[in-house]
Every structure is written in structure tokens, then in C-alpha cells.
Amino acid sequence: MPQPPEQPDLNDCCGNGCDPCIFDLHDLAMDQYRQALRAWESRHNGT
Fold first, then answer.
1. If we measure between CA atoms, which residue out of 15, 4, 13 comes closest to residue 37?
2. What is d(CA 39, CA 47) in angstroms, rounded to the nearest whole number?
3. 18 DSSP assignment
4. pLDDT above 80 (res 46)
5. Strand, helix or coil at 3?
6. What is the pLDDT of residue 6?
7. Structural contact between residues 40 and 2, judged by C-beta atoms closer than 8 angstroms
8. Under a CB-based contact definition with an 8 Å cutoff, are residues 1 and 38 in contact?
9. Is the alpha carbon torsion for 6, 7, 11, 12 positive or negative?
10. pLDDT (tens digit, 9 = 90+) per residue, 8-39?
11. For 11-32, b where at least 16 C-beta lie within 10 A, e where not — what string?
12. Are 7 and 38 in contact (CB under 8 A)?
């Protein structure tokens, strides 16, 4: 089963408006995690 990415702490952001921000990267990682989780569930719910 895929594991969700660790959420960054609020203090991990430098506050300089980076593009991408560490929170943007986390959002992208969460999207990938959700896709992987759906695929995993699809494979395992069929058995």
C-alpha cells in the first residue's frame, strides 16, 4: 500500500515566495499518492 508523503511543517517554508514552494511540491506529491492509492486499491479490491 502506498504511503502518503510527509506533510511539511509550517516552519519549513522560507516565506520568500519560491516557485514552487515546498507546499506546492507537497500538493503534487499528494496527487501522485492519491493516484497510486487508487491503483493499489483497484488491484487489491478485485481479489
1. 4
2. 14
3. -
4. no
5. coil
6. 97
7. yes
8. no
9. positive
10. 999 999 999 999 999 999 999 999 999 999 99
11. eeeeeeeeeebeeeebeeeeee
12. no
